[in-house]
Fold this protein.
Amino acid sequence: MGSGGGLGNLLKASEEFQQTRDWVRYPTNSQTPTVNDDSRPDPNGGTTADQVGFTANTSARLQQTVTLSASTEYTFSVYARAVSGTVDFRMRNVTLKDAEVKTATTTGPDGGGFTRFTYTFTTTTAGPYELALQNDTNATAKDVIFWGAMLNQGGTALDYEYAAPTTGGSAPAPAYAGFGDAFGGVTAYYSLRQFTEAETLNAIRVRRSSDDTEQDIGFDANGDLDTTALLAFVNSGKLWDTATDGNLTYVNRSSVENNQSVGGRTGVQKFTSTDTNAFFGQTNLFPTGDTNDYTIELDVYIPTGQDVNGVRTTQPFTSSAQTITQGEWTTITITGVNSSNVNFILNMLDDGSNAISAGQVVYVDTVTITQTTADGAVTTWYDQSGNGNDATNSTESEQPLVVSAGTLVEENSKAAVDFDGVDDNFDISNFTSVPTISQFNVLKPSATNVDETFTSIQNATTTDGIFLGQGNLGTEAKFGLRNYQGADIADSGIAMTLQQYLLAAITTSTTAQIYANGVAGAISAKARGSVSGDTQIGANGDDGHSFSGKFQELIIFDSDQSANRGTVTTGGGTGIEGNINTYFDIV
Amino acid sequence: MSWYIGTREEVEQYNEKVNEAKAYKGSITSNWANPRQHPDGSKWAIAANNSIEPQEDSNLIFEVQLSDDWTPEVEL
């Protein structure tokens, strides 16, 4: 192992992982990784190796930013050793959303029990790239001993060269800083913003109503819900596609021949009129009672020398005549088709008239009918914390919407999940440390003076539970908090209106407090009966008292976060609430 | 949301009919709706699917929305 001038090593501080100007540590709160520099024997027999303590967060990492060339192969390498036994960590290119898991031991071949691990990647565009040494995906705390990090061009690690730390200046800001990059120790994180740039995450799994297909939806480069991918998925459900559904079968005053060849295409359908006013298409295609809009696309070829020169739909509605140039394939697009009739029927035309003669020929290929007013229902609101507490509902009628009739659900210009107040909810795995729970909700109710539940958080083995919602408490609509074990532990005393809220509730075995947009509510106690149930978003644990309104974020800690709650000010603030308010702009 | 009202067996049969018609393709969704019991225990309701009607011999009653007695007010 050499110790050269660093010309071949594109990193900085290759042996000084404690240098935070070069190796930035995430998360940045009390859960930040620790680095004990020069605390361990290194591969050369000295004591320049650093012991890094990753906290119990999958996003815990040391991260360095380097500027790289476009479309170039690089190899990131580091010497690593376990303190005892084996330990997993990840080498990651955060920018490329790519990583490899490595397993360090105490018996590696590279001196002192170290193993030199390598990770090769190829850049896309030229510019800054964030490389990280990161905890693995099981979110447990662990110690890894590192020495000699290096980045070089090419597909293999070159001989190690020392690279000195940066002198002066400050650490680079990350490309995107999510909640999880600032606050570790999160038990569950449901949001339509990205938890951390250090993981490839999905926000939600969505079922489109047009064909019940499901797809995961992640985030864009800004950490916002990828609404482009979401709307493209929801609004592309095919009611009919000849590629999968086959040929059209309906003819009226016409005949059909399949698998024909014309105009450079094969396998197309040929319709020939047998009388005036000839029709063809597909009957019983649109569902009875359906009120959705569709876009119909089909390719049409009309041979030269005929009278027929166009088509139109007669069912489900009468479209404008589509004039077609004879002798070439033409793509016809008919938009805004409302399914007022169950049939899809086309009519042959001669200069807009359906009074055509027998023997007129129209070839048809690639018919697609796409629903453009589908709903996008959320089947899964993923827990981005890495703890696996995904919120799901497998029942179609109980799934809240993120796209309604083809349009994105939004609140304050950001995507939202809309609960219907009838039966929409999500189930979550129960937690173990209730009643010590800190929860932060971003939501907007659509009704007041109603008995509704925002969240119901239960203990996994007891009937301990925390029930946050609204009700007609006294003479006003107010937020409330109920302990399922027998007492209302906090009636906030805060009158609520139909506005967006940052609603925090912090409970322990002895204290309880609600904060609405940073304002603390009063505490009162009332006798209540014991209720058992499940942990749910949007219902009371037994599918009842459903929430009507929009949810955008729910963060759960199974610890008391009173000291980290912070404050909100217009457009910003400090601590947890400041982070939330800065993103959602609630206050 | 509209509803069908009937016995538990009738609403479960309707749900099964919708599930068979839908033949869900996704990895999560597997069920149309969950039957809901009236607070007095006398009848059951299930969400109506706009495209699928009950079997011809069914006694289910269609309601545009559930009356208030299905969801009594309870102070938080």
Notes: The radius of gyration of chain B is 13 Å. The CA atoms of residues 35 and 46 of chain B lie 5 Å apart.
